[in-house]
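Researcher: Here's my situation. A collaborator sent me these components and asked whether they could plausibly form a single complex. I don't have experimental data yet, so a predicted model of the whole assembly would be a useful starting point for our discussion.
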Amino acid sequence: MATRTRLSRLGLDTGKKARLHRILHQHGLRNGTALFLPYDQGFEHGPRDFFANPDSSDPRYIVKLGVEGGFNGIVLQIGLAEKFYWDYAGEIPLVLKLNGKTDIPPDNAALSPVHASVADAVRLGADAVGYTLYVGTPVQEKDFAQYRQVRADAQELGMPLIVWAYPRGWAVAAKGGNDSFYAVDYAARVASELGADVVKVNFPHPEKSEGVAEQYVGTDVSAQQAIDAVVRSANRTLVLVSGGTRAGDEVMLEKARESMEAGAAGLIFGRNVWQREHDESLRFVASLREILAKYDVAP
Amino acid sequence: MATRTRLSRLGLDTGKKARLHRILHQHGLRNGTALFLPYDQGFEHGPRDFFANPDSSDPRYIVKLGVEGGFNGIVLQIGLAEKFYWDYAGEIPLVLKLNGKTDIPPDNAALSPVHASVADAVRLGADAVGYTLYVGTPVQEKDFAQYRQVRADAQELGMPLIVWAYPRGWAVAAKGGNDSFYAVDYAARVASELGADVVKVNFPHPEKSEGVAEQYVGTDVSAQQAIDAVVRSANRTLVLVSGGTRAGDEVMLEKARESMEAGAAGLIFGRNVWQREHDESLRFVASLREILAKYDVAP
Amino acid sequence: MATRTRLSRLGLDTGKKARLHRILHQHGLRNGTALFLPYDQGFEHGPRDFFANPDSSDPRYIVKLGVEGGFNGIVLQIGLAEKFYWDYAGEIPLVLKLNGKTDIPPDNAALSPVHASVADAVRLGADAVGYTLYVGTPVQEKDFAQYRQVRADAQELGMPLIVWAYPRGWAVAAKGGNDSFYAVDYAARVASELGADVVKVNFPHPEKSEGVAEQYVGTDVSAQQAIDAVVRSANRTLVLVSGGTRAGDEVMLEKARESMEAGAAGLIFGRNVWQREHDESLRFVASLREILAKYDVAP
Amino acid sequence: MATRTRLSRLGLDTGKKARLHRILHQHGLRNGTALFLPYDQGFEHGPRDFFANPDSSDPRYIVKLGVEGGFNGIVLQIGLAEKFYWDYAGEIPLVLKLNGKTDIPPDNAALSPVHASVADAVRLGADAVGYTLYVGTPVQEKDFAQYRQVRADAQELGMPLIVWAYPRGWAVAAKGGNDSFYAVDYAARVASELGADVVKVNFPHPEKSEGVAEQYVGTDVSAQQAIDAVVRSANRTLVLVSGGTRAGDEVMLEKARESMEAGAAGLIFGRNVWQREHDESLRFVASLREILAKYDVAP
Amino acid sequence: MATRTRLSRLGLDTGKKARLHRILHQHGLRNGTALFLPYDQGFEHGPRDFFANPDSSDPRYIVKLGVEGGFNGIVLQIGLAEKFYWDYAGEIPLVLKLNGKTDIPPDNAALSPVHASVADAVRLGADAVGYTLYVGTPVQEKDFAQYRQVRADAQELGMPLIVWAYPRGWAVAAKGGNDSFYAVDYAARVASELGADVVKVNFPHPEKSEGVAEQYVGTDVSAQQAIDAVVRSANRTLVLVSGGTRAGDEVMLEKARESMEAGAAGLIFGRNVWQREHDESLRFVASLREILAKYDVAP
């Protein structure tokens, strides 16, 4: 099992450390691990994501679920944060997602525009901000320019910065795709090099190797070894592993276990949680918490 | 019949609440519903929209019609607001439309540039600002960037923000078109996620399903069910349903009834109102008011 | 004959009203009409425009001609304003043209970049600023963005804003061309909606109807009816009709008469004035003044 | 022989006049004419320009040559100005060239990015700034936007502005090329209209008339008549004629004579000066000074 | 052997001189030469660069190696500088690399976006900043615009500026490629003209002459003559020669010797150092130091 870096070794300024401490040690399991509930799919994919469980269309239902499920934080875009978080302010940490896009135009030159500022996050009492960085996109200079401002503002205001490090764009598609081991590994590293405090990655797929960098080809890497490497590439950046589209529970729990074993700080599961009935959601969350409970890390 | 959310549950800051209260409870029917008169078609489509009723070319005629018809607000671009609103200032709330474009170049990468600021709205005594967001356009990052500044300024100055959430662009055209249920539903959600206080939508067409997201295909959704869903997707964002191009009165009144039944806050009808003689306009407005009168909502 | 709106009904702030009053009632015929002398053709078309009368190449000659001819204002770009207006400062109002372009690259995506600020106009003692807005161009968002800043600065500094409202670009070419009735009518309206105090239009051509909006097709509109409509579309925006390329004197004087009859505030004639010998220029100007003298309007 | 305009008639503010007086009347021949030594070719063309005389690669050698040759100014980019001018500060006026580009990518949409500010020029004790404006390029709006800032800063800081007015880009190539009489004449006018204090032009070629504006075709214009016209088009903007690529001495001296006869303020010769041995350089400079000595102009 | 310019002759302001003195005379061999350890390859190429020596993936390992090897500085991107430099702050100078990009999209219009500011470098106690300038790229105006801000900030804050002057883009590829003598020579000059204090170049290849400027063709230039010329083109800009991809030790040491003989200030070797076991790395570094020890230069 990989060792976990304590908050005090990450080179964090006071404000960031205080807020991450609140998220990791004063919410959820309070053991230094994290379980986040992301809820920006209505924007990223549209209301179609709510058809499986119509209740999930209502932000109030989701925020309440976050509280009931004992999550370490809920992730919202500015509009829903303003309209719904006031009801539960303080009961669950808020991660204000600062950028996002619809999935209507194609993704080959993906860019996720910024919709809110770090100052908005401070105003709303958030404990972290989220930013989607599309690693490898042909318009990376626009993305990096946006990101740079967010990073600088977060540094100035002591706000932890969670980077959704997502390989994307036609050049990525030609080099193994969005979730190849090569691409996910690279994305984790980019987030670390560019100052993310926390990085959200998709689970890496070592079998997707067509077109990837030669060093990633022809080696017989297991899923565990791949996620191990990704966490290593992130070095002192805390890693959250994403659930992605809904899949079978056993598969998801296995991924969760492998992620934590690799040294990840936690999980960020949305559709796998709320695309089912309320009580089933809570049962699935309980299984995730059971896993996280095994990976205590001191502050 | 859907329940209507009261202003006090929307998470609004003081200034926005004061101004929305003025619009909804101190003008028009003063019962919490709204009827708006938009008058930016001379810019969006050109003077051709005034050929059906030449008097309608004169902004003074229209502002006066707004007062006579008991509208909750009139929507003007900066130039007409400066030249004509002073005559009737205070008699009818002003919604300053902040962006707009001509219809001369094609719409496949539609973007509606900003022409005035929220500060201009404050200077002119407006009670709300309007912004057209083209959801799904390939140049969405430019649109979102403009919108973000408007949203931030509106937040800072306590000015209610009405978003014209219009699906547009070649990618939308390829996925069911501008007024498919899928597209309108998505647009309503985007406005809510991005911080609109009020969203203006077109009436959704569930029968337009070629190319839309699979969840919207093959279900037998009625017009009422579609508009119900759109209002639900907007959650705590007040919904205004648009009249669009002029159509038969009975069709329009039926849409109005269905919209209000779905939980919309009101209607925004322009060409259907003023593309006819003065007295006919007022008669049609009276029918709309009759509908709205049935949907009282407390402040 | 159309009624003329008095300055006091235009909703103008103090500074704009003071400066327009100076131009319209303290210069030229002092009767509320206006005759402007534009001199930016050396930039817009190059020195070739001066070959017909080599003296016209010298800005000093032109400014003097403006004084001698009793014009209400002379229009210059920043460079010539700085180098030549000091000699005659105060003797004739200066309209500082803020944007412009060469005619070397093609016009299909025309944009006229800004070269000077409203503050420059204040510094040089100008009484108005001019801005060319290319209505209908595919790059309209850049144009509108520039224009917006100019409009805001002019509002702040009390400087009257004259908009050269010129239909332009490939989409306009495909819908009847730059001077169709449809396009000129639309352009006049756009200027009014976007806050121009004065709009400069080309004389509309109702016979150019191929590709225009259907409302403009198949009606038998006279030249007088067309310019009447254009002035109506401009509503409370003062209209100046442009001379354009040099044509026969009788044709030009007839256009001038029709324009004034339609309710225009005045004329703006350059090449038709100075592409001939000095004394001939003054004689032609005298004919124009004769026409304007018939259209007194009180302040 | 054309009359020369005195500094006091140019409408200059105090700082610009003081600095131009220093350049024209306190350096070089001190007779109101000017001879400049440009040295940005290492950037514009690369070190290949130094192969003819390897010593010329060393900026120190060139600055010293400028002092020895009695030039009115030396033109440097920011890097060389910072590293080499301190050695000779005050002994020869510095013209800080504010923009420039490599010649590696093709020129069809030429743009010369800004590398230093007018404030940098003030800090380094420069007496003028230089800006390359590519007249007629399809990206003219970017160029004009850059230029506008430079012009405004120069106006604010009283710094004379020398514009390298160079026709460039594919549209120019299709209309007679970079140094046709038509293009050079237009470029000189543009610089004057846009506020240059001094304009640097290439010698015009009336024989290049394929594709130029019709007014320039079929007339039998001599070299002298062409440069006369160009100087006239520049009106109160001082004209410097450029040497360009190295050519035979007699040809260059003849061009110099014709330029001065036309009313140019002076010459700007680089490669023709330093692409030869040190003493030969000084001998050629002496010939140029001999010409300039005949064209005294009072301050 | 070329003479080396002393710091006091470079025209440096106080802060830059103090920091360069610290790097060159108070670290490493303390003899005025420099050996830098760059570590941004995880961002520029991805984690694949660490496969040859898995330990090298850990930034802590590398910073420690920099200290142990007696380097004059370590080069890090903002994220790793924040997370890892605090541990060793002051023990080895930090060069904060301000821009960078992934190698996923192709390089034909390469641009390296800025990720951190000079103020970040000050905050972290860095002694220099690094900027990659892609000389000859078709998007050079964006690159130059970024660079200009960095240069101005570095000037204001007294921070030495090291420019990675890298020929890149399709136009370079068509003119001999990234490391032809022509391209490297041009790049060194550009850095000097634009105000770099130090320039990092790749070793020039005179044999790559297809498509280069004619002056570089057909001459029989040795490797030593080529690097001599490059250093001369950089004039008073200190030259660092880059190691590039890992090659045989003897080849690398020979390049190092030739570079120092040509007058370079030092070397910047990354992969050649750390793509091997720890002790082998130190042995190779010792060989490099042996070479540098022969080129003392007084402050």
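Model: Some features of this prediction you could bring to your collaborator: Chain C touches chain B through 40 residues (CB under 8 Å). The first helix of chain C runs from residue 14 to 25.
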